[in-house]
Structures are given as C-alpha cells and as structure tokens.
Amino acid sequence: KRKYKIAVLPGDGIGPEIMREGYKILNVLQKNFCMNIETKEYDVGGIAIDRHGIALPESTLRGCENSHAILFGAVGGPKWENLSSYLQPERGALLPLRKYFNLFANLRPARLYSGIENLSPLRFEIVSRGFNVLCVRELIGGIYFNKRKGTKYVNSKKYSFDTEMYYQFEIERIAHIAFKLALSRKRNLVSIDKANVLETSVLWRETVNTVSLEYPEVNLSHLYVDNATMQLIKNPDKFDVILCSNLFGDIISDECAIITGSLGLLPSASLNEAGFGLYEPAGGSAPDIKGKNIANPIALILSIGMLFRYSFQLIEISNIIESVVYEVLRLGYRTKDILQKNNNLVSTSEMGDVISKFL
Amino acid sequence: KRKYKIAVLPGDGIGPEIMREGYKILNVLQKNFCMNIETKEYDVGGIAIDRHGIALPESTLRGCENSHAILFGAVGGPKWENLSSYLQPERGALLPLRKYFNLFANLRPARLYSGIENLSPLRFEIVSRGFNVLCVRELIGGIYFNKRKGTKYVNSKKYSFDTEMYYQFEIERIAHIAFKLALSRKRNLVSIDKANVLETSVLWRETVNTVSLEYPEVNLSHLYVDNATMQLIKNPDKFDVILCSNLFGDIISDECAIITGSLGLLPSASLNEAGFGLYEPAGGSAPDIKGKNIANPIALILSIGMLFRYSFQLIEISNIIESVVYEVLRLGYRTKDILQKNNNLVSTSEMGDVISKFL
Ligand SMILES: CC(C)[C@H](C(=O)O)[C@@H](O)C(=O)O
Ligand SMILES: CC(C)[C@H](C(=O)O)[C@@H](O)C(=O)O
C-alpha cells in the first residue's frame, strides 16, 4: 500500500490551531479510504527563529525533502516584525522553500461562494454575477530571485538595483500550466504583463502567444497590469484563469483574494514539475486572533484538497473534500470571519468536527 | 502683464472634444481674471503618428518647450493598436514627454464625490465612509527608464531583462513632494514598497524614513505593495497620501482611480522641480464614445485647475475651478458616465457651458 508522507509545518499565529483541524481531516480520510498517511511536524517561521535562530532550519528542509508534500500553516507575527525583512518569518521561510523545491507554479484560486457575496468589498451588482478566478503565478523567477541586485555608489551617489529577468523556458513552463488549467475550466486565459514598458513583458507576451498555438481551444488575451487591476474590480466575472509573472502575480493574486471577501476560505498550491508541492492557506498568521478558537480552518482544509489533487493525484478524494466544504458552507456553518445573518456560528474546532463528520 | 503660455495637445479619441470644453474654461478665466493666456495646439499620439510618423514629433516637443505648461487630452485608439508597443500613441508620447521635461512627480488625486458613491464598484458600507486619496508616483526613474534592459541568449537559451534602479536622491525628491502634500492634507502618508524582496525597496523605505525626520507632523507608515492593494479596497478611507515608485504607482494609482467609480472626474499632474508640468485627465481616449458629445470634460477641467495651482501658482483660481465643479456636480448636472437617478443629463459641450457659466 502506498505510503503518503506529508511534512506538516504549522508555523505561527493561527497556524497551529488550524493545523489541528487539518489533522482531523487527514485522520478521517485515512480511515475512510484506508490510506497510509504519515505526517511529521517541523518548525517554520517565527517559532523556528525562536528555537533554531532561522525561519527555515536545515532540519525542516530535510524533513520536507523526505516527504511527498508540504502542508504549511502560516508564519509571522509582531514578535519578529523588527527583524530585517530578509530574516522575517514570511520571507525567510517561503522564498527559500519555493526556490529549493523548484516550486515554480503557484495556483491561487479565488472564488465567490454563493451565500457569502455580502462579505465581498465589491458592490452587489458586481458580486451578484459571481466569479471564480484562478491566478497562476510564476513563483521562482523574475525580480524575486535574480542575483543581479545590490546597493552601490557612483560618484558618491548611492543607488540600489534589482533585475527582473525571465528565460523563455521559464515563461513556457508556467504558460503550459496555465493553459492546461484553463482547458479544465472555462477555457479563458488572460495573461498579465507590462509589455508597453518592460522588455521581459515583451518576451512574456511573445512566448505566451507561441505556447497558445498548442491550445487552440483556449481563448487567450493580454492585459497590461495596471488595466488588469481595474478590470478585476469592475468585472471579476470576465476572468477565468489569470497568468502572471512573480511580481505581478504577488499583487494581482492578493487583489483576487480580497475581492472574494473571505480570505479564510482560500487555499493555494505551489508546485514543481514533479508534482511535489507546498500547500498553504491564503490568509496569513492573523496573530490578533491566535488561540481564540475562532480562526477559519477551511482554507487549510481546501489546501489539503489541493494537496490530494496535485501531489497525490487522488482527484476523487480532492473532489469529495471540496464538495463537503461547499455543503457545510451551504448549510450555514460559519466561523466568525464569514458569519452572516441566520448562520450557525461555529468555532475553529467545531468547523473541523463538522467537516470531518460530513466526510 | 505676465503671459501664460499653454501647449495644448488634444490627441485622439475624446481628447479633442473634451479639449474644446477646456478652451471654454480658459476663455472665461482669461476674461474674468484679466489674464493673458496664450494657447497653441500640437499633435500628439495617434494623430501625430498619422501626420508625422511618430507619436511625439519634434515640433510638439519644441512647442511644449516654449510654454509654461502642457495640457494633454488623451491618446490612443484601435487604429494604432497593432503597432509595436514602443511605438504606440500612449507609450510613445507619454514616456518621452515625462523624461524630456524631467516630470518626476506624478500627482493623481482620487476622491469619491458625495452623491455619486453609487458609481463606485465598492459596496456601500465602504464608500459611505468616503475617501480622498492622493497618489504620488515617481515618474521618471525605476524600471521604466533604466537602460540596462534587453533580450539575449546564453547557451542558446533566450532571456530578457529589465533593471529596477533608484538613486537615493530620486527617492528623496519625490518623498519631499509627498510629505509636503501630506502637510497640506490630513498629514498621513503611506509609502508603498516590497522591501521584503527588493533591494530598491529597502533603499526606498530607508530613504523615506530619513526624509520623514524633516516632517515630524506627518504620520508615516509603510505597506508592502501586495498588502496595499488589499487595504485600498477594504479601507480606502484610511488613506490620505500614498507614495509609490514608478511601477508600483502605475498599478496603485489605477486601483485608486477605479474605486472612485468615476474615471471621468479624475485629473492628474506630472511636475518637474521648476513647476513645469503636464496635466492630463485620468480616463484615456475612450475611442468607443468619440465624437458622440457624451464624454465627461470634468477630468480635463480639473486638470486645468491643477495646472493653475502647480505651474502658475494661481491657487485661488484653482480653488475656484474646483469649487465650481463640485457645485455643478452637487446640483446634479451629469454627463452620461456619472448619471444617476434624478440627475440632469448634459452633453460634453453642455457640461462645459454650465461650468463656464458658474465661473
Ligand atoms: C512573504 C512574501 C515574500 C510573499 C511574496 O511576495 O511572494 C507573499 O507576499 C506571498 O505572496 O506569498
Ligand atoms: C501608457 C503607459 C506607458 C503609462 C504608464 O505605464 O506610466 C500609463 O499606464 C500611465 O499610467 O500613465
């Protein structure tokens, strides 16, 4: 029987408490589907800084290496905010994990669940049309990782620089991911760039156009990033899959997330070519509500769903997790962050229990 | 008597028709305040491509040089969309104009006018708190203009690159502008960067912090650009002045603009150290409504207001223009783009007439 090994990185803030609910789900799946799931926990983020002096200790990296997937809670908090940003929990843990495991494909779905449109910051006329966007972000290239950066002096004038750079093959491989995902959805792909200013964007657009020839069923269009920012707010229902570079994806995917009004429901996956991946809720460590048993575990649970889908190729189990979550939401079970009139307020652990029961 | 020379660049699409209303306003001001205003028209954008083969002809540049300010309509349209993006009307006209005249300070106010909150894409609970944001964008530095860019091959792998770069003095001068503007407003400045990833952002943040010592009355904070994108949508009322680099400002200022729901009301100014400036409505050339006499001339008229304020230092006249516009809006005169129930629908030219009358 195949053994599925998951490296569990609860992290800081609400990370550990939502992870407890994640364990519940994993246990139920293990029983119901007679699976052999092995989980091992490792320190990451602030707690790792406290215990090992660094946000991503060697032991954690080794543990992840010996697993088939990483389940990540959340990192960061006020305690570590005064560290130089390069050492901080978020940056110090996430960027090296992404790079080390070659997790070039970041998938961030952002959908509006029917029944909670009222939580969206967008007005009713817009959200009543619904939306379901999948942001595909290149995650290990571009200006994030290029080594040509620094701070220097010329004629005693100080300056700093960073280099945005993309190899054509980096654009090709993320474009293929986006086109394939579009095929399984509404076959609509919008590629974001700033081709009227950036040379990398010109290559980006050219390359995406070339890759598109292999996917004649997908309707491809291009938007400048500034215009995309506006269109997403005005007409989110016009989007299906969105393809972005690392930097633009950082901004655009957060915009997609916020307009749903429910960060606590949004999972994410960061994958490499081999299907190894890091799965992480979109919401962050929310230190202000830590330990109160009010955090929403659904984003983490849906991240487990993505993990089963993309790293374990257990599509059916993934579908089951997702439909159970939708059903539980439909029945009105809600943590505080997504509570509305006539809903059934549940705590973090109760939400985990309800979802486990339905599974 | 001082002569005020304005280079008028109507451009394409609705540019010429809103500019006609601009002339009306200039004529009234000229009469009412016994001013000596001289306007001269020059081609720019698509029409300049058609007539001179280039979006910014030498003659236009010379004309601008011989003036005290540039009043810009709008450029671009489907006719020129298939040109390579470097030659297109927007990019080919705006970027060289900004660089040539050292227009490093881009001011983009975005406010919600009371009475038209319903036009905002944001929900009522958010817009009912109102907002009034001024985006200050560095306009001639950063990744937009750095010459270290290109497309190359290494080991037969194709790649492209661009260089984000800021001299400390470039950050200092735009920061001073932002702090000074904050002093004249709610004394609240948010500086946007990505200091957890970019070396230029680390210098940006450091430099803004240093400049802030000279403005102890201004409350400064920093936000990462991804987070800023979210906060602007959730809590636009928390913002007063926003300071951005060229690339981040391109995105953030468009986000600020769209959440007002009324692009047709938003002016902008791009200034150099000497107070010379280019003034331009935010909305673009809107080729689809060209020639229909329905475009909103208010953004252009408020741009004239900014021109009087920043290039002519005629603050009182600028105040008058602004308060007349607010009054006209308050009285319910509306072009189609901002029409609501019980309003008085007026055409482009009627709106110009009404505002002239009130002046
Ligand atoms: C923490 C930070 C480095 C990271 C990023 O910029 O990628 C985060 O914002 C994200 O989007 O996962
Ligand atoms: C046309 C384009 C080059 C320009 C920019 O990116 O600055 C435009 O988007 C703007 O914001 O004025």
Concise account of the structure shown:
The structure is a homodimer of 359-residue chains. By secondary structure, chain A is α/β, with parallel strands linked by helices. The first copy, chain A, contains 12 helices and 14 strands.
What is the number of independent domains of chain A? 2
The H-level CATH homologous superfamily of the largest domain in chain A, spelled out, is Isopropylmalate Dehydrogenase
Quaternary status: homodimer
Could you give the order of the helices and strands of chain A?
A: EHEHHEHEHEEEHEHEHEHEEHHEEH
Strand content of chain A: 15-25%
Biggest sheet architecture of chain A:
10 strands, mixed
Tags for this model:
homodimer, 359 residues, alpha/beta, Isopropylmalate Dehydrogenase, 2 domains, 10-stranded mixed sheet, globular, binds 3-isopropylmalic acid, 3-isopropylmalate dehydrogenase activity (chains A, B), IsoPropMal-DH-like_dom (chains A, B), metal-binding (chains A, B), magnesium ion binding (chains A, B)
Secondary structure elements and their pairing?
Two copies of one chain form a homodimer.
Chain A lengths: L2 E9 L3 H18 L3 E6 L4 H7 L5 H8 L3 E6 L14 H12 L4 E7 L12 H4 L4 E7 L11 E5 L2 E11 H16 L4 E6 L5 H14 L6 E6 H10 L6 E4 L1 H15 L8 E3 L5 E3 L18 H13 L4 H16 L2 E2 L9 E2 L2 H11 L1
Parallel strand pairs in A: 1-2, 1-3, 3-12, 5-10, 8-9, 8-10, 13-14
Antiparallel strand pairs in A: 4-5, 4-11, 6-7, 11-12
Bound molecules: 3-isopropylmalic acid (IPM) (2 copies).
One 3-isopropylmalic acid sits at the interface of chains B and A.
